[in-house]
Amino acid sequence: MAACGQGSGAAQTESGDAGTSGDYTRAEIEEIVHDYILENPEIIEEALVELQARARDRERDAQSAAVQANSAALFEDDRDPVIGDGPITIVEFFDYNCGYCRLAGEWVQDTLDEHGDQVRFVYKEFPILGRQSTEASLAALAVWRTQPDRYEAFHDAMISASGELPSERIDSLAEDAGVDVEEMRAAMDDEAIQRHIADVRGLARTLGVTGTPFFIVDGEVVPMADIEALNAALNSALES
Asked: Beta strand pairing status for 88-94 and 119-125?
């Protein structure tokens, strides 16, 4: 058998580099690529789209791993408001002043109406849009703590309300939902409720949650109000 470089049929240039006499220099190749890109600029957009898709996939994989590592804090924190007791758990991080959360709220309500005996919603009060958001979440958690049977109606009223949520409007929505407003306001000062919100914010950072809404449907991460993805994840869970 011939030794490496002998009898292999490989040609060499005068400089000793392997190749053929028709090889391009580095500069020539760069010029060809440059010209091709100028003539076909859409390939840059295609490459950027692909890079973004890969980045999203990596982020989703990291979040899925974080979900598994923090399952107790996500699914079993007895301080969190919970609606339903079905076998499929859906966690939502939300902000009452978030317009996309309002859109997703319609999906949440439809899901409860259609599959109420099969789902369990865990609500993660995650105020990130300022003082009004924080006050609304404090009020909601105070109601869950002192008047849990009124939480769902109060939550639905606030999540579907358009516009700002100043103190007087929060109180009005609470009263309409049958909440004892005085008891709610007294409970809002409890440090335990404020600590709960701080813990949810810390959990969100661990998961890489940067916006609302953020869903986990039967363990599958679905960021933002992506109704198509939410339905796909829910249908998969229902089928299994």
From this structure: parallel
Which residues, listed in sequence order, are joined to residue 216 by a DSSP beta bridge? Answer: 91, 221
Q: Has residue 43 been placed in a domain? A: no
pTM for this predicted structure: 0.76
- CA-to-CA distance for 31 and 33, rounded, in angstroms? 5
Q: Domain with 90 in it: what CATH number?
A: 3.40.30.10
Residues near 201 by beta carbon (within 8 Å), at least 6 away in sequence: 126, 128
Structural domains in the chain (count): 1
Asked whether 125 and 95 are in contact (CB, 8 A), the reply is no
For 230, the domain range is 71-239
Please write the tens of the pLDDT for every residue from 172-185. Answer: 999 999 999 999 99
Q: Is residue 61 part of a domain?
A: no
Dist. CA 27–CA 159, nearest whole Å: 60
User: How confident is the model over 99-158, as pLDDT tens digits?
Assistant: 999 999 999 999 999 999 999 999 999 999 999 999 999 999 999 999 999 999 999 999
86 vs 111, 112, 116, 189, CA distance in Å? 12, 10, 7, 33
